[in-house]
């Protein structure tokens, strides 16, 4: 199989990463093109000990570093969109955050791409997470019928600097809660106290409010059906606190600014 054929499935993703990293698709594509030209000319080679995707990103970073390019975004980074927020994260932390949160690499793979240690990558991700949490503090609705689990989630949310505006145990309670306080984030279970569904509660909420949702459930198979709302963020119980914290940061970071949906 040719080099191009091996890399072709991964090119849309490295272009996405390059755009997020640089803040501009044209600039990002330039560095992707230079990396591919270096591979084609034999100036760079893929590490045979890595998967093709990891090796491609590793070459991209080698090219990037060799140019002395800066990771500052063009223009004003004072906006409220994800791109502007990215440009405000320290460059090295931005790389580690994007590789794990956007591209789905493990910390070990990220360390291979960046030429860093596992511990360094962990510290960089934590630094980025801290910056995100501080900037995107919001009101949170928890939909959970188990009091102990709800209390655990509430403690995690508050630890990140967010405010829990309500804890709902049923679909009706969840919809009523949104009527009182419009949250910036919803954390939802599926099986609720009265037999109602957290999925239906979320559908009701999303019909009126554009808000990121994280499902935390022991029944993930009820969500992964191809029907709406298909979750971007799904955490299986029993959950790890760090998993929930990371999902909250990513959900808030990549979701557009909260806004009510226009009336039909």
Describe this protein with a few key phrases.
264 residues; alpha/beta; Butyryl-CoA Dehydrogenase, subunit A, domain 3; Rossmann fold; two-stranded antiparallel ribbon; 7 strands; disordered C terminus
Walkthrough of the structure:
With 264 residues, this protein is of the alpha/beta class. The protein folds into two domains: 3-134, PhyR, sigma-like (SL) domain (Butyryl-CoA Dehydrogenase, subunit A, domain 3); 137-260, 3-Layer(aba) Sandwich (Rossmann fold). Helix content is 53%, strand content 11%. Helix 9 links the parallel strand 1 (139-143) and strand 2. The relative contact order is 0.09.
Topology:
Elements: H1 3-7, H2 11-22, H3 25-40, H4 52-67, H5 82-87, H6 91-102, H7 107-114, H8 118-135, E1 139-143, H9 147-159, E2 163-168, H10 171-180, E3 185-188, H11 198-206, E4 209-210, E5 213-217, E6 233-236, H12 241-254, E7 259-260
Parallel strand pairs: 1-2, 1-3, 3-5, 5-6
Antiparallel strand pairs: 4-7
Q: CATH H-level name of the largest domain... which superfamily?
A: PhyR, sigma-like (SL) domain
Query: What's the CATH C level of the largest domain?
Result: Mainly Alpha
Unreliable parts: 70-76, 258-264
Number of helices: 12
What is the helix content?
40-55%
Q: How large is the radius of gyration?
A: 21 Å
CATH architecture of the largest domain: Up-down Bundle
- Overall pLDDT score: 85
Instruction: Please indicate the count of domains.
Output: 2
Structural class from helices and strands? alpha/beta
End-to-end separation in angstroms reads 53 Å
Please sum up the structure shown.
With 264 residues, the chain is of the alpha/beta class.
